[in-house]
Each structure stands twice: as structure tokens, then as C-alpha cells.
Write a structure and sequence with these properties.
heterodimer; A: alpha+beta; SH3 type barrels; five-stranded antiparallel β-sheet; 11 helices; B: 534 residues; mainly beta; Methanol Dehydrogenase, Chain A; five-stranded mixed β-sheet; 2 helices; 4% helix
């Protein structure tokens, strides 16, 4: 019935949580998981995963909006930490807590049994590149639009925590072919006022009667459509594509190496 | 002296009994004839949501201005249609809250709050869609599956009846339909493996008069459409949108919800009657007169819990008593409400699962739309071509107005073990990455089931529609705007940004102190609009 539009946020397993939600419980149910390796439990865990997690983490757990879980599992996360992160959620992210009323400990253990089953094959990641060179490339090519720890432009997404939010595959895709998917609030528009002034920028919001834009000078401003001649929606991203001819495989590897070190900043350091 | 005292006491008692408002069965039949009142969820028994008021017109609607705002001060959004009686609003809200509010000022008169059990869980929010009213009593279903009768003057509880066990996933959100002396309602919870029903209760005693199961069981001819065994006991068939009533036939009409589990076909082979159907039920006995199933063996969670809108139309030169139904499965139907046979049915949004509705009334299915573990893409998505948002019918223009959704989804289906009280959907859906969903207000000619005009919204909307005899349509987009349109052309005439989108209803309109008000619930606020005072 109403699961339709009620839009209860689906369970998102954000990798950030694996770093933040680490309080070891005195008795963590995942320390002794009877479902590991049990085919029936794994099948039930798959159903639970698809219902609650797949929307954000992808059907194959390879990451979609949410992080790549296969990479996380291969990276050595413990079952206890997985359990805590799913149970408590990750404050400040889309990852909600799985309340005990909705999801029993037993369900979570079956879910972990499923994740362990699909996460046994290590992903074929290439070695991490030269982080220092990656940082240099970032400063030369990216920082005018992307912000890290309070430094840089605002036209593109803030990348302060990108290292825990995106898989290597997702980063590669978004650098090589950024037009494949433009994140919401970063689509390009040009608004033309009645007196012919053209304002180009990224669309922050829109409804039938108004549009809100950050222009190329990073000024945020709303416009009533009744006062505009035209709104031109651009199909391509402001982010330029970096094919191999523009950014070699080696440089890309270095850049991603640097990006993967971006895992947030301490509050006190801000 | 003694005799005098008795007379005085009797007079005082009589005065106390008659001081408050009294709503009669005749008032219910009269619908919106008294312009100071809005007594039923759909405005009248036909479900038209069409007001005879004409003070606000296409010419002056641009001057409409907010008069006051009421804030609930609680979490959760309104999905209610306020009841209006003699200058007082009766409004239900989130988490089993309700209020009586001064319609002149927006100030609270009383508040009712029922404690929500700590272990209550529901799929879709602790919403409520409104009161029913009879005599000096208000009737409200509660999210923990009770029916309460409240004293209209104080909000005090007069009776409290358990409909079903909320611990097993049963819940109730529907605004009761009052017919004669009965309070008619239905149960929700099809995501939890419940067996749905429609009930009637005596408005004075709270005693149950009859029950109609929306999932056919042993002894019912519809039982053949379920697998042998006990699948019917968790077969779904929720009721969560108020039905309509035809006094001439003494029939009530309700749309029924999806079968359970939602997506996994193999758990329930067969048509699964009377889920995703329109059922016509005798108002006195609860016996089924006829049914029409929109989506036999639904596997896309397409509840048919939309409003069955009643009208008398001339079709091919013949007068026909019809029920009009814009269904979540993407088709618009005009059905003969005496026989239950489809007169005309056509898609009103993009539909990929069925080619058409065949001469026998069954959808002609297209291949590749049975959810499995690999997923299949189907339009519309699980939210449907439309949903619980109320449509409106304007008998003057003979146009049916509906908030339409243009959407697609990838549906997955897989086996799931049933555990009482736990969610039991047998699948899930995802929005394809390249899918651009949007919404629209659409005007449909019910004689031909074709679209006459549309006004597009950038995103989908769950707002209902309200029309007035002055030629106005009030509706809302998914971004928080309430809007007015010219009903013949769809021209936008006015809008106001509410700060949160309307859901379920487009509000009510009524006269008070010589002024026509538009009352709009959105988020946790009610906003009253009127023209400037002269």
C-alpha cells in the first residue's frame, strides 16, 4: 500500500559509518554469527539486502549512490563493525539506523552472512598511485570548482569526504565521462532575463514558477520565471571530461590515489 | 415546586442535547448544498470534490491571500481532508492527533491525542485522512487499528473499538464513510501479510454490523483465485482511501489494495480476488453485489485504492450511471455502476505492462513484466499513474481532473519467508538511473477516456484536486505550490508557495461570514486563503 510515496529512506550503508560508528558493544551479536555459510540464511539475507540496501548500494553491492560494499569488505571491515553501522546508522549521512523494531538482530546477521558470501572475491583494484602527484594534479585541474576541507571552489561537489563516499570505479567513471551522470543540484542552466542578461550557472533548485542558481562567480540567486525570457537547460556537466588523451592512466591513478585519502576532517580542524 | 424543578432540569438537559451541531443522514445526502459545511471526505457521496461556491472566480483568484496559518507543532505531514461545521474545523493529523480549530482565526479549540504504542510499526507513516461525522460525533480510525468516536464539542472519547491487532501489522488511516447510522471503514497493512476487510459499525454503540473480506476465503466464489492452503490469510487487499455511496442502489464502492506479498508472483498464483478491484457492496448487509478487478494477479504494488467517482453521463446517446476510476496501474476507466462492466478504458500515463483493456474487461498483458531476481523495467513505477491523491469531477464541464505521475521502475521479486508482524513484500523496486520522472495535472473526458489538457510539473506530486462551480481547479505540485487553474483550458491563474507539498488532498472550500475560504493542509500546517475584505 502506502510504501509508494511515503518514501521511508532505505537503509544505506555508508562507508563513513565504518569509520565513525565503532563503539564496540560488550556483546556484539556478530561476534558469533550462526548464519555464516548457511545457504538458506544467505538467501534470506539477499532478500533483506535487496529490499533495504540495494537502492543505494547497488544490486551487486558495488556502490551506486552509496559506497561500494564489496571494496569495503575486501578492505578488512569486521562483522562486528558492520553490525554496529547498520544498527546505528551514520549520523549526517543518508544511512539511517535499522531500528530493532523493524529489523531483528537475526535479520542483520543473515544480511551480514549474505554480504560475506558476495564479498569473498577481492576486487581487482590497481595499486594506489602517487598521492603527492595526485594532489598536485588536483590543485592544477580541480580545485577551482571543488572544495576540500574549506579550500577551493563551490561550483562542483565538495570532495572533503569523497574517499569514503565513492569507489575507485565510480571515481574513474565520473572523471573520464562526467556527462554520464550529473548529480542533482549541479546541472547547468542559463537564465535569460527580460532585459537580455544571460546568467549561467548550476541549478540548485527549481519548481514551476521559480529557479535557484549559483552563477559562475558563485553568487546564489533565485529568479521568478515570470521575469525571465528563457531558461536554457544544458545537457552537459560543467565538469570537463578527462579522457586518456587529457589525463593519462598513470595520472588518473595518482589523482584517485589522492582522492581516496580524502576522508573528512576533524571538527576542531575546521 | 418539585414539579417546577423537574421541568427546569428537563429543559436544561434538552438544551444540552441540542446546543451543539447536529449532522443528520439527510445532511450527508445533501452533500455541499449548505455552503458553510464540508461534511464528508469527498465533499459529497459521489466523491466529486466539486464545490458549488462562486465567490472566488477565474477573474479574481489572483487576489487570493493567506488569512491565517495553523501549525500542529508535531512531526509528520497532513493527509487529511478537514471537516467544516458551523465555523469550526475538525482535522486529523499524524501520530493519532486531532484538533477542533476556529475557522475564523486558526486557533485551537480542543486537541485529541491518542498514545501510539511504542512497538507500533508501519510501512508508510502514521498518517490519517480525516474524520467522519454524524449527530454530534466525530469518527476517526487510528494508526494502531482502532475506531474512536469523539464528542464534537470536547474531543472526549465516546467509544473505542479495536478493528484488528496492530502487532500483526494491521493499521488504519482511512476517513470513515458515514451511511445512514453506520460508520464504514477499512483496514490497511498489506505489506505485513494481513487479510484486508471493509467493516461497518453502529454509530451509537460501536458494535460491528458487518464485515466484507477483500481477500476471498473458503465459501466465497473468489476463493478459487487463490492457491490452496492459507495464502489468503496474508493476501493483503488494504483499504486506505474512502469510498463513495450510491443511495439509489444502496451500494457503497471501494477500491481495494494490492495482494500480498507485493511482488513475488509464485507465492499466490491466480487472480487473487478481491484485491486491486472495485467492489460494490450493499450498505446495509455488507454483501458484494459485483466486483471488477483492474489488475488481476497484481505484482507491481498497484493498490486500486483510488476514489471511485460517481456520475450520470450520456454515452452514445444513452444515459449511463457510471463510476470513473483513474487507477494506479495507469489506466482510466469509466464503468457502468449498475452492472460493473467496463464502458471505456484507456491509459492516462505511459503504461508498458498491458496493451489495452480487452472486451472482456481484462488487461491484455505484454510480456516481460513479472518481477524476478534479475529485475524487470515497467511503467508506471510502484507509485503508479496516480495514487491516493483525490481526483475531482466537474459536472458542468464534464471533466475529470487527476494528478498524474509519469514514472518507471525496475521491479525485483523473490521468495520471502512470512513471519507474523514483519514486512512481507517479496521484492523491491529501484528507479533506473536514466529515468526522468515528472508529474502533471490532467483533465480527462470520461466519455472517451481521453485527455483534454494537462499542466506539467517538473517532479511528481501527490496532491489532490478540488474544483468549484466558478470554473476553477485547485491542485498542487510536488514542490510545495498550491495552484489555481481555469477548468476549461488548464490555464494557470494563481499560485502560492506553501513550503511543503500537499499530499492526498487539495483542501476544502466553504463560506464563513460571507467570505469564501480555501483551506489547504500541507506539511504540518493548515493555511486558510480568502479574497481581500472589501
Amino acid at each position: 500500500m502506502t510504501r509508494t510515496l511515503a518514501l521511508v529512506p532505505l537503509v544505506v550503508l555508508a562507508a563513513t559509518g565504518l569509520l565513525l560508528a565503532q563503539q564496540p558493544a560488550s556483546v556484539n551479536p556478530a561476534a558469533n554469527n550462526p548464519h555464516l555459510g548457511n545457504p538458506q540464511s544467505i538467501r534470506s539475507g539477499m532478500a533483506l539486502y535487496r529490499i533495504s540496501c540495494a537502492d543505494c548500494h547497488g544490486l551487486d553491492a558495488g556502490g551506486y549512490r552509496g559506497p561500494d560494499l564489496i571494496a569495503l569488505l575486501a578492505g578488512g571491515v569486521t562483522d562486528e563493525r558492520l553490525f554496529q553501522t547498520i544498527r546505528k546508522g551514520v549520523p549526517g549521512t543518508e544511512m539511517p539506523a535499522a531500528r530493532e523494531l523493524d529489523t531483528s538482530d537475526n535479520d542483520l546477521l543473515m544480511l551480514i552472512a549474505y554480504l560475506r558470501k558476495i564479498g569473498t572475491v577481492a576486487p581487482t583494484e590497481t595499486p594506489v598511485g602517487n598521492v603527492e602527484h595526485g594532489a598536485t594534479l588536483f590543485k592544477a585541474q580541480c580545485v577551482s570548482c571543488h572544495r576540500v576541507a574549506g579550500v577551493g571552489g563551490r561550483l562542483g561537489p565538495d570532495l572533503t569526504r569523497i574517499g569514503v563516499a565513492r569507489s575507485r570505479a565510480a571515481l574513474t567513471r565520473e572523471i573520464r565521462t562526467p556527462n554520464d551522470w550529473i548529480p542533482p543540484a549541479f546541472e547547468m542552466v542559463t537564465v535569460v532575463t527580460r532585459d537580455g542578461q544571460r546568467i549561467r550557472g548550476v541549478k540548485k533548485n527549481e519548481d514551476v514558477f521559480s529557479i535557484q542558481v549559483m552563477d559562475m562567480r558563485e553568487r546564489i540567486q533565485g529568479y521568478l520565471k515570470s521575469s525571465l525570457q528563457e531558461v536554457i537547460y544544458e545537457k552537459s556537466s560543467l565538469m570537463p571530461a578527462f579522457p586518456a588523451g587529457r589525463l593519462s592512466d598513470g595520472d588518473l591513478n595518482d589523482l584517485i590515489g589522492y582522492l581516496s585519502t580524502l576522508r573528512g576532517v576533524e571538527q576542531s580542524a575546521r | 415546586m418539585r414539579a417546577f424543578l423537574i421541568v427546569v432540569i428537563a429543559s436544561v438537559t434538552l438544551a444540552a442535547q441540542t446546543a451543539g451541531p447536529q449532522v443528520t443522514s439527510q445532511d450527508q445526502l445533501d452533500g455541499l448544498k449548505d455552503p458553510t459545511r464540508w461534511l464528508t471526505n469527498g465533499g459529497d457521496y459521489n466523491g466529486h470534490r466539486h464545490s458549488p461556491l462562486t465567490q472566488i472566480t477565474p477573474e479574481n483568484v489572483g487576489q487570493l491571500a493567506a488569512q491565517w496559518t495553523f501549525q500542529t507543532g508535531t512531526l509528520g505531514s497532513f493527509q487529511t481532508t478537514p471537516i467544516v461545521i458551523d465555523g469550526v474545523l475538525y482535522v486529523t493529523g499524524f501520530n493519532n492527533n486531532a484538533w477542533a480549530i476556529d475557522a475564523r482565526s486558526g486557533r485551537t479549540i480542543w486537541r485529541y491525542r491518542r498514545e501510539l504504542p511504542e512497538d507500533w510499526r508501519g510501512c508508510c507513516g502514521a498518517v490519517n485522512r480525516g474524520f467522519g461525522v454524524l449527530g454530534d460525533r466525530l469518527f476517526m480510525t487510528t494508526i494502531d487499528a482502532h475506531l474512536v468516536a469523539l464528542d464534537m464539542r470536547t474531543g472526549g472519547v465516546l467509544f473505542d473499538v479495536e478493528l484488528a491487532d496492530y502487532k500483526l501489522g494491521y493499521s488504519a488511516t482511512v476517513a470513515p464513510l458515514i451511511v445512514k447510522d453506520k460508520v464504514i471503514l477499512g483496514i490497511a497493512g498489506a505489506e505485513y501479510g494481513i487479510r484486508g476487510f471493509i467493516d461497518a459499525y453502529d454509530s451509537q454503540t460501536g458494535k460491528r454490523a458487518w464485515r466484507f473480506y477483500t481477500v476471498a476465503g473458503p465459501g466465497d466464489p473468489g476463493a478459487r483465485t487463490w492457491p490452496q492452503g492459507d495464502a489468503y490469510l496474508r493476501g493483503g487487499g488494504s483499504i486506505w482511501v474512502t469510498g463513495t455511496y450510491d443511495p439509489q442502489q444502496n451500494l457503497i464502492f471501494f477500491g481495494t489494495g494490492n495482494p500480498g506479498p507485493d511482488y513475488y508472483s509464485s507465492a499466490r498464483e491466480g487472480d487473487n480476488l478481491y484485491t486491486t478491484s472495485l467492489v460494490a457492496i450493499d450498505a446495509d448487509t455488507g454483501e458484494r453485489r459485483w466486483h471488477y478487478q483492474f489488475t488481476p494477479h497484481d505484482v507491481h504494488d498497484w493498490d486500486s485504492t483510488q476514489v471511485p467517482v460517481l456520475a450520470d453521463l450520456t454515452i452514445n446517446g444513452q444515459p449511463r450511471k457510471v463510476v470513473m476510476f483513474a487507477n494506479r496501474n495507469g489506466f482510466f476507466y469509466t464503468i457502468d455502476r449498475v452492472t460493473g462492466k467496463v464502458i471505456v478504458a484507456k491509459p492516462f500515463v505511459e503504461t508498458t505492462w498491458a496493451k489495452e483493456i480487452g472486451p472482456d474487461g481484462r488487461p491484455v498483458l505484454l510480456p516481460g513484466h513479472l518481477p524476478d531476481e534479475d529485475g524487470e523495467k515497467t511503467c508506471p513505477d510502484l507509485g503508479g499513474g496516480t495514487n491516493f491523491m483525490s481526483p475531482s469531477y466537474d459536472p458542468t464541464t464534464r471533466l475529470f481532473f487527476v494528478t498524474a505521475r509519469e514514472t518507471c521502475a525496475t521491479y525485483y521479486g523473490f521468495d520471502q519467508k512470512f513471519k507474523p508482524g514483519d514486512q512481507y513484500t517479496g521484492g523491491a523496486t529501484m528507479r533506473p538511473r536514466d529515468q526522468k520522472n515528472f508529474g502533471a495535472l490532467r483533465a480527462i473526458d470520461p466519455v472517451t477516456a481521453t485527455m483534454k489538457w494537462e499542466f506539467r510539473y517538473p517532479t511528481t506530486s501527490a496532491a489532490g484536486v478540488l474544483t468549484t462551480a466558478s470554473g476553477l481547479v485547485f491542485a498542487g505540485d510536488g514542490d510545495g505550490n498550491v495552484m489555481a487553474f481555469e477548468s476549461r483550458t488548464g490555464r494557470n491563474l494563481w499560485h502560492y508557495q506553501l513550503g511543503f507539498p500537499m499530499r492526498s488532498t487539495a483542501g476544502t472550500t466553504y463560506m464563513l461570514d460571507g467570505r469564501q475560504y480555501l483551506l489547504v493542509p500541507s506539511g504540518s500546517a493548515l493555511t486558510a486563503f480568502a479574497l481581500p475584505q472589501r
